[in-house]
Amino acid sequence: MFCLRIFLCCLLLTQSVAAAQFNLQTPVTPLARVEYHLHTILLVITGVIFLAVFLVMLYSILRHRKSAGHEAKQFHENITVEIIWTVVPLLILVLMALPATRAVLAQKSTRSEDMTIKVTGYQWKWRYDYLDDNFGFVSHLSTPRDQIEGRAPPSGNYLLEVDEPLVVPTNRKIRLLLTANDVIHSWWVPQLGVKQDAIPGFLRDSWMLIEKPGTYRGQCSELCGKDHGFMPIVVEAKSPEDYAKWREAKMKQLAAGADDPNKVWQLADLKARGEKVYTQNCIPCHQANGKGIPGTFPALDGSPIATGDKAAHIEIVLFGGKKNPAMAAWGKQLSDTDIAAVITYERNSWGNHTGQVVQPKEVKAARGKTA
Amino acid sequence: MAIAETTHAGGLPHGKPHGIMRWLMATNHKDIGTMYLWFSFTMFLSGGVLALCIRAELFSPGLRLFQPELFNQLTTLHGLIMVFGAIMPAFTGMANWMLPLMIGAPDMAFARMNNWSFWLLPPAALLLLMSFAVPGGAAAAGWTLYAPLSTQMGMGMDMTIFAIHILGISSIMGSINIIVTILNLRAPGMTLMRMPMFAWASLITAYLIIAVMPVLAGVVTMVLTDRHFGTHFFNAAGGGDPILYQHVFWFFGHPEVYIMALPAFGIVSQVIPTFARKPLFGYTSMVYATSSIGVLSFMVWAHHMFVTGMPATAQLFFMYATMLIAVPTGVKVFNWIATMWQGAMSFETPMLFSIGFILLFTIGGLSGITLSVAAVDVQLHASYYVVAHFHYVLVAGALFSLFSAIYYWFPKMSGRMYHEGLGKLHFWWSMIWFNVTFFPMHFLGLAGMPRRIPDYALQFTDFNRIASVGAFMFGLGQLIFLYNILHSLRHGAKAPHKPWEGANTLEWELPTPAPYHSFEQPPKVEVAENGVILSCQDHGSAHHDHH
């Protein structure tokens, strides 16, 4: 009766956490499948070893206790036994090492790819460049701030959703080239079996071949500063036909959106565009109200840079700053028009009323000067 | 508390000093040991509070209590304080207190340096704790302080670097003392291959510390010069290499793991034979296993870097070498169990904590094997699985063994018994809530939750809740320990000369509490393996027979 009751309690407990995930996510690439099976093998072997150790210990705790009147034997050496428990674990390790070696070699075989995508980690977003087709875009977290700060309930893919997912074809071997712009990030999508550090100044590679169309989600897994927890990765795998369609559309869209750097803008238009750029890129540090985070990130509202010399302002946005924490260099990430817009916005928002407009061609000229 | 008055061999009267100067100018290994233990317990509570802040934030999705930058500071300082403030000084404290007694030495070899190595700790701790209050806050790059993130931080990072320098100097001085004491001050008859395992473990640990602390000091100094003096050690744009930081750091960091584990092995190797009333099984192989773990620990550092993109050959080498550590570690676990086998066990608190140690350390070790396999590590690296793994090794390993040690030697140290009921409550409470806290983290890691994130996706909610509840209860349980110690120091029953029937190493030959000065004349001992005393002629101060 008692046993039954315990069993029922356990059943209820397991049901309450049944929604939770106990194992690795379902693999959808050959690498992820190898990792999954290897983990299962290890789990079984280590589980058996643990059980053996635990049961022997439990038996001796129950039987060889003083209170049960057991007399202590005084043996304390047995060369044969000691050799056995050196050699047997060694053999088990060799058994584990064989499949593990094969898996490592498979992970490292990045050759004969069908296409290459360059992944660049930034604080705190990912840029994807389709090297074969010469286009690319930046992918940001799209979960609204209201949900993160508790003003709205978190919804379905809370923190695992982006504005621009990485779209790839299924059944193609895709080589990923990874690097970073500022600090080390790590690109991890569990279902694809890929985790690879993205290191500033270095190129690393990995590969994936996705077998099933679908949306696969992951996150940055290397502590990369303040918004480390807010750098999701979303990979959308489409059939090669659908992918081709998406690629056409995307290239057209990017071409249409490209700006003429010589266009002369009005203050209001530039400011409106600048607000968007600011929201997407600058808020994490300088905050929506331009006040920054005292002691960590400087304020723009009323700052000498945002109200003083235009050229100095352009230079720091383009090439970054040297003080700690260093201001990131945005020259490589944003177009001339975007930089002109965001600087115009910063110089004409909050308490800043310079009335100055920064035109894209001024940014273009500033780029040229130092380069 | 009666403490034997004594005289120097020279005949000058020399009692126990009193007042604040007793502690500030302390050269007595027992006083210094006591200060080390209280210091590390204070740090344990501070680091614990930081951990509870982390768990409170992680109780539910959404940023509720802390902004991400503060969250990162909390995780960073929690790690640094626990490693350098709590665990390492606690083992040095235990070694200070017990080593001279266990090997028949009058004190540590360099008593004044001993004073220095302790008094360096509080300023370092203050630097770490005060860094929360400076502009930009404390270091927020994780306890590993990876460059180039650590070159971005504010002045909190400089304070941390300075604190690490000081802590490093302190632990190197402590280690020199331990090595010289063990090699030079053993009583006649106490040969190396007969001394207690705790002495062996402390000796090997001390060598590891001397080998790797300068490496850590070097690498954080390189960060410092990158930050302020225009060097580019870790900046690729200036010809440096961000991965160099990790290689150098982990060349320190991996042996560091064993610096926090080997003394635990030593403690358990004293406690289990005592309460099993049976000699330690396989003493010789224990010594060799401990040494080989020490040596191997220098060859496996890059297993912390499997996803940095090293070549396949390097991955394979580090994978095989790491897996190999399971062999000597396994030998130790099997030997402890063989010691329990056919014994006459009783289950006082120290024994409970030691058995708990074996059980949970085995889980931590086995999940370590899983992590050692590079191909699987790709999924688990920097995930909560790793957090679970190293807490099984460091909390259930280092911390439980320390509790075991404190309960075991408390009567000899204080002259009073701790409260057995409270001790057992402390054990069961810790055992249960520890597992509630950390076991679910294996699942979180497998399911894909990265470590060091202040907020998480919805599917991780259930296990995070369980872990947070567990953490608060585990933390609460440590107050039982504090109460037990404080209460027993004043009101505990008087401890007998030898409170444990099966205890048979040299420290138990001394009166209880251990006199302020002991073994001023080396005792003549006849010793069996693991420091088991067969006969002892004490010429020391213990019985004052020379006056």
| Category from helices, strands and their pairing of chain B | mainly alpha
Q: Helical element count of chain A?
A: 11
Low-confidence stretches of chain A: none
Helix content estimate of chain B = 55-70%
Largest interface: A-B, 105 and 102 residues
| Lateral arrangement of strands in the main beta sheet of chain B | 1-2
Give me the strand/helix succession of chain B. Answer: HHHHHHHHHHHHHHHHHEE
Q: Largest sheet of chain A, order of strands side by side? A: 3-2-1-5-8
Q: Count of DSSP helices of chain B?
A: 17
Oligomer: heterodimer
- Rg of chain A computed from alpha carbons, rounded to a whole number of angstroms: 28 Å
Total beta-strand segments of chain A: 10
Distance between the termini of chain A: 82 Å
Shape estimate of chain B: globular
Unreliable segments of chain B (pLDDT under 50, ≥5 consecutive)? 1-13, 542-547
Q: What is the residue-averaged pLDDT of chain A?
A: 88
User: Would you report the number of β strands of chain B?
Assistant: 2
String of helices and strands of chain A: HHHEEEHEEEEEEEHHHHHHH
Architecture blueprint of SSEs:
The complex is a heterodimer of chains A (371) and B (547).
Chain A: H1 2-16, H2 30-63, H3 79-108, E1 115-122, E2 125-130, E3 135-139, H4 145-148, E4 166-169, E5 174-180, E6 185-189, E7 194-198, E8 204-208, E9 214-220, E10 232-238, H5 240-257, H6 267-281, H7 283-286, H8 304-307, H9 310-319, H10 336-347, H11 360-370
Helix pairs in contact in A: 2-3, 6-10, 10-11
Chain B: H1 20-24, H2 29-57, H3 68-103, H4 111-119, H5 121-130, H6 155-184, H7 197-228, H8 242-259, H9 262-276, H10 283-296, H11 312-324, H12 326-340, H13 349-372, H14 374-380, H15 384-414, H16 420-447, H17 461-491, E1 524-528, E2 532-537
Antiparallel strand pairs in B: 1-2
Helix pairs in contact in B: 2-3, 2-4, 2-17, 3-6, 3-15, 4-6, 5-6, 6-7, 7-8, 7-9, 7-10, 9-12, 9-13, 9-15, 10-12, 12-13, 13-15, 13-16, 15-16, 16-17
Structure in words:
- The complex is a heterodimer of chains A (371) and B (547).
- With 371 residues, chain A is of the alpha+beta class.
- Chain A has 11 helices and 10 strands.
- Chain A has a 5-stranded mixed β-sheet, with no helix packed on it. A 5-stranded mixed β-sheet of chain A has the order 4-10-9-6-7.
- In chain A, strand 2 (125-130) and strand 3 form a beta hairpin.
- In chain A, helix 2 runs antiparallel to helix 3 and helix 10 (336-347) packs across helix 11.
- The longest helix of chain A is centred in the first third of the chain and has 34 residues, at 30-63.
- Chain A is elongated, with a radius of gyration of 28 Å.
- The termini of chain A are far apart.
- With 547 residues, chain B is mainly α.
- In chain B, strands 1-2 form a two-stranded antiparallel ribbon.
- Chain B has 17 helices and 2 strands.
- Residues 1-13 and 542-547 of chain B have low confidence and may be disordered.
- In chain B, helix 9 (262-276) crosses helix 15 (384-414).
- Chain B has helices at residues 20-24, 29-57, 68-103, 111-119, 121-130, 155-184, 197-228, 242-259, 262-276, 283-296, 312-324, 326-340, 349-372, 374-380, 384-414, 420-447, 461-491; strands at 524-528, 532-537.
- Chains A and B meet through helix 2, helix 3, strand 7, strand 8 and strand 9 of A and helix 3, helix 10, helix 11, helix 12 and helix 13 of B.
